[in-house]
Each structure stands twice: as structure tokens, then as C-alpha cells.
Amino acid sequence: xxxxxxxxxxxxxxxxxxxxxxxxxxxxxxxxxxxxxxxxxxxxxxxxxxxxxxxxxxxxxxxxxxxxxxxxxxxxxxxxxxxxxxxxxxxxxxxxxxxxxxxxxxxxxxxxxxxxxxxxxxxxxxxxxxxxxxxxxxxxxxxxxxxxxxxxxxxxxxxxxxxxxxxxxxxxxxxxxxxxxxxxxxxxxxxxxxxxxxxxxxxxxxxxxxxxxxxxxxxxxxxxxxxxxxxxxxxxxxxxxxxxxxxxxxxxxxxxxxxxxxxxxxxxxxxxxxxxxxxxxxxxxxxxxxxxxxxxxxxxxxxxxxxxxxxxxxxxxxxxxxxxxxxxxxxxxxxxxxxxxxxxxxxxxxxxxxxxxxxxxxxxxxxxxxxxxxxxxxxxxxxxxxxxxxxxxxxxxxxxxxxxxxxxxxxxxxxxxxxxxxxxxxxxxxxxxxxxxxxxxxxxxxxxxxxxxxxxxxxxxxxxxxxxxxxxxxxxxxxxxxxxxxx
Length: 487
Ligand SMILES: Cc1ncc(COP(=O)(O)O)c(C=O)c1O
Fold this sequence. Notes:
By secondary structure, the chain is of the alpha/beta class. It has 3 domains: 3-80, Orthogonal Bundle (Arc Repressor Mutant, subunit A), CATH 1.10.10.10; 123-129 and 384-486, Aspartate Aminotransferase, domain 1 (Alpha-Beta Complex), CATH 3.90.1150; 153-376, 3-Layer(aba) Sandwich (Aspartate Aminotransferase, domain 2), CATH 3.40.640. The chain has 16 helices and 16 strands. The chain has helices spanning 3-6, 17-31, 43-50, 54-67, 137-149, 166-180, 195-206, 221-229, 246-255, 277-290, 328-331, 345-358, 364-376, 378-404, 430-439, 469-483, and strands at residues 70-73, 77-80, 123-125, 189-192, 212-216, 233-237, 239-240, 243-244, 260-263, 293-297, 322-327, 339-342, 409-410, 419-424, 442-444, 459-463. It starts with a helix and ends with a helix. Residues 127, 194-196, 220, 264, 269, 297, 299, 327, 329, 334, 339 line the site of pyridoxal-5'-phosphate.
């Protein structure tokens, strides 16, 4: 084979010589000039013929073996491989643009209202999210790494139970018994990817198109959207300073069958009010009497600042009416997609069966690591610390708002949670204020997230938990400054 004539070499090119040799040989193999099964000359021989260094030929051969053009047979040498690799087009081909619309019809799915936070380096009054700077990431990642490496933990790298880690469910059952008075075992728990998945799964199992779902006239927007997605017929009841109007709930039950009631009793979303004790008991009584399910979203139970927290409805539920959902996304950090659903075990099984269909299982190693955080006491240490910090931030924000904006906005200091529900004076255009704040370096929602059945509230949530003292000072200063020309 006249290799010296069939392999073009050009020392003036930027391409290294070994690559030119490899490209030249591959081109001749592709053309069939060097046939499949041909034995290539030894590196010393080819180097001499091409007038190149032997290392250059060795590098070219290595490249061709790596790409699959050549194969090495022990003690025989290098041969053109019997099955050649996929051929890469010689010249780049312009790809056709990917279509925007599919060729088939489908029902559009509305966009869920979502707090899209700006990527700009601005301060943010969010919906009430934890400060990710406080998350015990070191402890969590150490536990994760240790579990992933332990030979005895290989099972967690395989498929496991769609109900979630037994260790985490046991740790959670003990924690929920101690902190929330829930008389449950691991069989009453499904580990999910967060409260949102728990809400979706509940809606999926319980709702059929046209089923009546009671919610507050102000309500957590993603829950509203989830019930609508499942064909729920939403019935809104008033929310006052003591939470849902349960007399209105009773009147609705007298008029028609009700399937589900959604409630955030600890701190109503978005107004942060707590459902009064007598209303809680009445809700449980109505649920048992009229046979509807209560979906209790206790998204921020962990953060309460006045004495002992009010126990969930689920803790007093002896009839089996309540489905209780919680999230470690609020306890630790939103990006950690682990939450839980607590219910009578027969319902947990049904919900687990649906979860299996849309999400095979959770991240088992992460769930095991979280179980260790509960068992070692790290979780309660973190909570105690975060609670202290957030309480200080709540106090700071409320003081700053009272001092700097005494008449522009009204609020009740929340007894817990991570946000203040701020109602602005009616002369203030909240949308214009929100835009002006953003220009001045502060994001706050213009209130549209919270307006579903109650437009023109002129109110928004000011999440304080993720802003430290300096940031809170700065944020309120920007808010005050932005308000100046607006009313
Ligand atoms: C009331 C309420 N429920 C549920 C969720 C969703 O939580 P997760 O991140 O666990 O899905 C949120 C998140 O902000 C919330 O505010």
C-alpha cells in the first residue's frame, strides 16, 4: 500500500501531524482503499515511509483504535476493524429548525402562576422561602457521600420502593409523632418529591371532573391550578382574621356533595392567618358528617415564633378524614425535592400506586441521608437555629415597616411562617410600585399571584426569611424610596 502517496500531510496546517495521519487513514478505510481486515504496517515502518517520528504514528494509531477504525489483535498487530464506526459527515450539514408545534393536536395546559424571580443581582421579597445560606449542606452532603460509598448501601443505588425509604419514613413517623402529635407509623407515610407532588397525587386519586373542591377565596395558587387541572369545580369560601369561614363550608355541604377541602391552617396562604381552634374542630366534624376529604397543607409548620405551635388538624382526626402534607423543601431548601404525605394506610397505598406511574421512586440515597439527619439530631439542631434566625428577621422586617412605612401599608405580624401579608393603601398602584422597586434593585410581586377569586386586594407577600438584617434594611429603604412619588 503506497501510504506515502495516499496520506496527505501538510506541515503548514494547525492540525497536528498525528491527526492528519489518522484522518488520512480513516478516509482511505472509508473509501475502501484500505479494506476491512487489512493489517496495518508497524509504527516504525510507517514512520519511515512517511518520514515522521514513530511517536506520531503511535498517536495516530491510538486515535484510530479509540474511534473504532482499527482493532488491535494480541501478538498479530493492528487491523482494519470488521465493523466500522458511524461515519461523521465530512462537511457540517445545516440542521432543519426544530418545529415549535407538533404535527398532532393536544389540549393546551395553562401555565401555572409561578413566582419567577429575577436573575438580576437584586434583593428579593419572595413568597416566603427559606434562606438557602442556612441549609446544613455540609452535613447533608457528607451523609450522602458516606451512604453512596458504603458497600452495604448498594441497594440504594438500585430500584427501590415507590413509597420511599423505610428509614426515612420511620424517622419521620417518630418526628411527626413528637412534634405534631400524629399517631402514625411508617405505613401512613408516602415520601414524595415535595408538597406539590403530594397535592397533585391527592387530586389525581380523589377528583373526577365536576367534583366540588372547597378552597379559601384567597388560596395557594399552585393548589388551585392543580384542582382545576383535574376538573375540580372550585367553591371559594371567605377567609377572615381566623382563617376559613367554616359556616360557609357548612352551607355549601348542605347544598351539594363536596369531595375535597384544601386548607393551610397553620398560616393560611397567602394571608398568614391561623385557623382558630373551634373552626378546626368544626371542619373535622363537617368532614366526617358530609364525607369530604381535608387536604391539610402544613407547608410552614416548622416555623412558629409564639410559644408552642397549634397542632395540625390531622392530630385530632380520629375518623380518617385528613390527608396531611409537608415538605423538607421549606425546612431545608426549596431545591431539595423531598416531601411527604400522611394518611390512613389504605389511601397511602392508592396514592403510592399512582406515584409509581408518574415517578418510579425518589432519590433513595438522599432519603437515606435525610433519615440520618433526623436520627443524629442534625435536623432538629438546624430547625432550632433557623427558627431563631427567622424570628429575628420577622421582628426586624415588622419594625422597619412600622417605622418607615407607617401609613402606606398595613399588616398583622405573623405568628410564624416566612412572609408578611402586606396590604397597601388603596391609592398605591402595586403594579407600578413593583416595577419601580425592580428598577431600584428590589423584586416584590405585584400581588397578581394572590388574586385568584379576590381581585384588587392591593396586597402581596413579603418573604423575610431569606434576607439577613442588612438586606432587610436595604429592601425596606428601597421600598420606601420607590413609594415616594407614587402616592
Ligand atoms: C402553601 C404551599 N404549599 C406547597 C408548596 C410547595 O412546596 P414544595 O416545594 O414542597 O413542592 C408551597 C411552596 O411555596 C406553598 O407555599
